[in-house]
Known about the structure:
two-stranded antiparallel ribbon
Amino acid sequence: MSAKKLNLFANLKNDFPAGLVVYLVALPLCLGVALASTGRPDLLFSGIIAGVVGGVVIGILSGSALGVSGPAAGLVVIVLGALETLGSFEAFLLALVLAGIIQLVAGFLNAGIIGYYFPSSVIKGMLAAIGITLILKEIPHAFGYDKDFIGDEAFMQTDGHNTFTELYYSVRYSSVGAIIISLVSLGILILFDRPFMKRIQLFRFLPGALFVVVLGVVMNGLFQAFSPDLAMKGEHLVQLPVASSASEFLSFFTFPDFSFISNFDVYTVAFTLAIVASLETLLSVEATDKLDPFKRSTPTNRELKAQGVGNIVSGLIGGLPITQVIVRSSANIDSGGKTKMSTIIHGIILLLSAIFIPFFLNQIPLASLAAILLLVGYKLSKLSLYRAMYRLGWDQFIPFVVTIVAILFTDLLKGIAIGMVVAIYFILRKNYKHSYHYKKENNQHGEVITIQLSEEVTFLNKGSIGYTLDQLPEGSTVIIDGSKSVDIDYDVLEIIQDFKNHAAPLKNIKVETRGIKGVQSVGGH
């Protein structure tokens, strides 16, 4: 299919089922992030609001074909700290509105260019790490041990456990009913992934995730009727707020308190939210574009503007901060989404289901949803990805592995930062080695050394060039040739000029420069 055919309504047969799967993935994540961010069950609906705004508002404004936005687990700690600092959710909503304005301005100032400077090895490491994290974090839900919210990406959890201790407790306190539902759900999802199933028209339009959810509700109902010990209850089910009337539903929406506009802490929180949310979005944009089978490129400045508008709207009506989120985006891609209509559809379904069928949603076992996320995690961290990165060499493989390990044992943003440091080291190391070509030959006048500078010579190269000049033998002739260079940084020119004027005469080295502006062409003894 050509990119020209990817208009919003031409691919509904692909985008609707993908949007439905994204909705099933997003629903528990929205609720889980809301509970973890606020610590208040009465504010669970703030996660739904953010999910709807991320799907519909940002979906319409964004230039990302397959990216899905919503409340992110990566901002949980920031939101918790902000609520403690500001003392009220209404003051926090004001800070969120201001954060959205900052993102909007950043988009107009072309700050989205930052997204192009994340190394590919780090982005792929992030994808693999999120896949492993999903598997490790969803196993407790698949085993029926739900002591922490779905969507927690950090190694250290809010309940005092960590990723690995949670696995131990999930095995120790597992539920047979949850395991049965998880295994059956995984079996159905794997079956639906088989090529022969995709040739059946009904199953191309109705995704396996929908059958998994419906079957999970039916199986749990049968457990309640015939074997109550196996049945999932309470925290093992989706827990969406249920309104008994229209007025009660409207009470789920909260509005910012503009009386806090003169509070300095509000602005501190706003800048923090804007920076972290923008970074997480740009990382997800880069990762989503790499997964896109059509290899479309998202305009990052437009994405920042869309995220800014989304956070303004979310803040005005009582929602959580929004970023583009790779888990939902990858679920969209894996489910066959073609355009951003799938994102918009997921937001619309999220809103309609919260209004009309909250009671049914609250019958869905988390074990069924965990199975969906387990498969998403597997697809993000396939063995073929590790083999491909290994074949690229150590310069790519080591930052890739370090990023994975760092994310697994810290959180997403800290892990990315650690991976970036390692990737930059290898970039500098490679740059150090390849900033010039060194050639040595002998003629009747003695030893002649030619240093051919590369096309781009920046301040990053001054260390290697300076070291090479210092090691030149006494009495030699050196030709520093910049004729093939498009640009030579002033720092490098300064090193060459200083060597010519001071170090070379002391070692009786004759220096000749070619095609280098700013340095005299002939040196002396």
